[in-house]
Amino acid sequence: MIFKDYYRILGLDTNKVTMAQIKTSYREQAKKYHPDVNVGSKTAEDRFKDINEAYRVLSNTASKRKYDRMWNTHIGNKKKKQYEEAKRTTGSVFSDFFYMFFGSNAKDEGIEDSKSKNKQIKGENVETEITISLEEAFYGINKKIALRTVEGNLKNFMVKVPAGIRNNEKVRLIGQGKEGKNGGKNGDLFIKINIEDNQKFKLSGYDLHTELLLTPWEAALRNKSKNRWYR
After folding, report:
1. Mean pLDDT (whole number) for 68-72
2. pTM of the predicted model, to two decimals?
3. CATH at 85
């Protein structure tokens, strides 16, 4: 059985990495080789399975520690630069190397082995952002946006921005994210709201800031302008 370098599969050159780095690398690789992005590509499909397999092992502290001992022997000590991937059993979610490594007690190790292809999977959430004016944030607005789907089609959404929304808050559209699989629920669509300053006012938290030009004597003696008193 050929040793499988899970770190290289996730795009990492060493095992001296944090859990945060493993998670970030996993997301990058999964996005690159996702079947929805590489429709019909058997190579991408197998690669995607490898990426998920690697993440299941390395994201678990106990299994990572066990794997690192083997990694140091096969890769770290020998400084091997080129990795080889183990062959998969036909129809298997995990490679032969995975089962050799964890045996039949994979679930007890904290590793989920999805044997059923009919397991319901919730769709991924989608995030985007829009920019609105100060007036629109104060009074609220129904804003129409268009997003491009994975298939390349434009889909329109009506976003109801509530009055008084704060900068960087998000509006959630339930079930408008990516479709679920095997009957699973759709993901949600989150729209981050960016409030744009205008020429007169700037927003800071709940407060509006503006500049008022006064002469020294107006500031000292107070000046009545447009029916308002300024100190």
Report:
1. 83
2. 0.42
3. 1.10.287.110
